Each structure stands twice: as structure tokens, then as C-alpha cells.
Amino acid sequence: GPPAALSLPSDPKVFVTDPTGIKDATVKYFTELFQRAPRAPSQKPWMTTPSVVTIREHLRALLRKGNARPAPGPDLWEKWCIKALSDSALSLVLDLVNYEILHSHFPDSVKPAIMTTIFKRGSRTDLSNYRGITCSNLIKNLPFAWLNHHLSAYITQQGILPETQVATQPGVQARDLTSFLSHGFDRLEPEGFYDAVRAYGLPESLIALDQSAQHNVPCQVKTVHGLTQTFTLSGVTQQGGPFSPLKSTLTTSMANHWLRDVLQDMPDNLTFVTHQGSRGKPHTPDDRLRLCTQMVEAMDDSILLMPTLAATTKSALFADRFQAAYGWETNWSKSLL
User: Fold this and answer.
1) Which residues, 6+ apart, have CB-to-CB distance to 93 below 8 Å?
2) For the whole model, what pTM was predicted?
3) How far apart are CA 44 and CA 224, in angstroms?
4) Which H helix or E strand runs over 155?
5) In terms of C-beta density within 10 A (0-12 exposed, 13-18 middle, 19 or more buried), how is residue 220 classed?
6) For residue 175, is pLDDT > 70?
7) Gap between the Cα atoms of 177 and 257, Å rounded
8) What angle do CA 35, 40, 43 make, to 5 degrees?
């Protein structure tokens, strides 16, 4: 605990033991300790060193990615306007983004979202034939765009995503395909992404960041008569978010790996080899390659590759068991055998 006796700085041989004397000596010591003499202005080259400038340039590079003029969210922050900010003004945006990332927390003031309905097919009077695209605030989207930029490269480098999941892979144009599953992202529960984070040993802060972003989100839907009244959503993978495609593919990647493990010993698995490789006469290094796969994916469109009806039935039951755990449903009317 605190000392019961203090020596005086002016005379170390003199000790103070009374309550008032100890308090006064303590205050005097720390007051003098934390005093700072005014310093003459000086140049600070470390503030403009290339390594420091690169950090700010990363934010500018992030702002240059994607559509330069997307529809603004409820905050009405225009992306093209943010891109044109000076360094001093952009530093304010960077401070806000860093706060959200460091604390894995989104303040309630940045959560409101506006949902736009986009017609898919069928009757225009049936809302199930529309897709709800969420427009969120820019200051909420930026951390996930940053995360998506770096995490995509990492999971590809580490081989987390199967080679047969073509969506979100580098060099592949990611498209939102929603013909295999009923309602796609609308039914995908975030718990699938959280399980993937835990299973692959990724940082738990990813879960905390996403949970904060998806908890109690005030939403309004744009209708022909204007915006609806505000309603609150929690635990929804919002379609239109920069991180939603990667959350989806990380979730389904577990199914892909699982199917490969549980079905690899089946006698009627499908194996891809070149013609020369199948004859045992390799002519090039590629002729020695063999690919045994059970599932090919493009976002939430999937193909189960099995040579027999029995094998297809077995793999479909495994796939249904997986997706049922996370709220997805097979759209049987749009599935083919």
C-alpha cells in the first residue's frame, strides 16, 4: 500500500508521518513531476515519413475502390466528396474509423440504414419477388470494406476458401447469385460466420465488430410513397454490405471442407484428371494433378458433383443439414438434378 512515512526531498533525513504532511508532500511531488516546461516549436519529420503517410494513403486507396458514386446512406456522406478531402479533414474520418476498429464498436448514431427494394422476377405485387438492398452509413461501411480488403487476401493465402468456391476469390468478378437458396442473404444467420471465425482460428474481434454492427439497427424501407416508419433489426446479414459476400463464402466453406472429409471414402466419388493423366501417361506437370471434389460454389449457388443418384442424395442430405443450422433453405423449385 501507500507509504506511511515520506522523506522530504529538501532533506532526506527528515521524515513526515502525520496525515496532513503526507498528503501535502504527495501532492507537491506529483505536481512537480507532471509539470512540463513550454517547448519551442520544432519540425517533426516523423509525421511525414513515408511509413506514416502510407497509412493515410491506404484509406484513400480504399475510398478509390468500388463505385465512386454509390447511393448515400442516411448520413448523406457522398463517397466522392470524402475522397476529395484534404489530409487534415480526412484525418477526422480516419480517427472515426480507427475508433470503430480498435474498440470493435459502432455507436448507435451510425447504425441507421435505408433499404431499397430491387425487383427480381415474377409478379411485381409480391414482395417475395424483390430483393432488399441495404444502404448503410459510409462511416459504418468503411471498417468492413477495409476488413474485406485484407481478409480476402489472407484467407486465400492460407487456403481457407476451397478452390471450388469461385466467388470472392482474387481475380473473380463476385456477383450476387441467389437461385439455389431461398432468399439468400436474407436467411443467413451471422452465427455461421462466427462459427467460421472460431473454427479457422481467426481473431474473436471480428465477431465483436460484426455483432456491434448488426445489433439494433434502425431501418426504413423506401416505398413508392416514401420511407416507411423505422423498425429495428438484429442479427441480420444485410445484402448490400461490403462484407456480406465474404461472410457468406466463409460460412459455406465449412460445408465444402466437411463434405470433402465425410464423402472422400465413398467408392463413387468424382475425380478430375486430364486425358493423359487418366491413361497413366503424363506429358506435362498438369497431367499429374488430380482433383476430387464434391461441391462447386459461386456465392450461394452450388453444384453437388456426384456420379450416381445415391451419392447425390447422400451429399444433398449433408448439405441440407449444414445450411439448416444457419437459417438457409434450399429453393427446390429452382434446383435441378
Assistant:
1) 59, 82, 85, 139, 142
2) 0.67
3) 56
4) helix 138-157
5) middle
6) no
7) 21
8) 120
> What b/e readout covers 243-276, taking b as 16+ CB neighbours within 10 angstroms?
bbbbbbbbbbbbbbbbbbeebeebeebeeebeee
Q: Determine the distance from the C-alpha atom of residue 245 to the mean position of all C-alpha atoms in its chain, rounded to a whole number.
A: 9
**4, three cell numbers:** 506511511
| Residue whose grid cell is 517533426 | 44
Q: Do 136 and 73 contact (CB within 8 A), yes or no?
A: yes
pLDDT-based confidence at residue 334 (cuts at 50, 70, 90): low
Q: What is the pLDDT of residues 144-163, one digit of tens each?
A: 888 888 888 888 777 787 77
Residues 300 and 180: beta-carbon distance below 8 Å: yes
d(CA 296, CA 301): 8
User: Grid coordinates in use for 137?
Assistant: 452509413
The secondary element (H helix, E strand) that includes residue 141 is helix 138-157
- Which pairs from 190-196 meet CB under 8 Å and 24+ separation? 190/214, 190/235, 190/236, 190/237, 190/247, 191/326, 192/247, 192/251, 192/254, 192/325, 192/326, 193/237, 193/247, 193/250, 193/251, 195/251, 195/254, 196/250, 196/251, 196/253, 196/254
- Which amino acid, 240? G
73: amino acid identity, one letter: G
Tens of pLDDT, residues 213-234: 988 888 888 888 888 888 888 8
What does 266-298 look like in DSSP terms, one character per residue?
-TT--EE--HHHHTT---SGGGG--EE-SEEEE
Q: Between vectors from CA 127 to CA 183 and to CA 125, what angle results, nearest 5°? A: 145
What are 274's strand-pairing partners? none
> Looking at this protein, which amino acid is placed at residue 14?
V
Shortest CA distance to 188 belongs to which of 300, 93, 331? 300
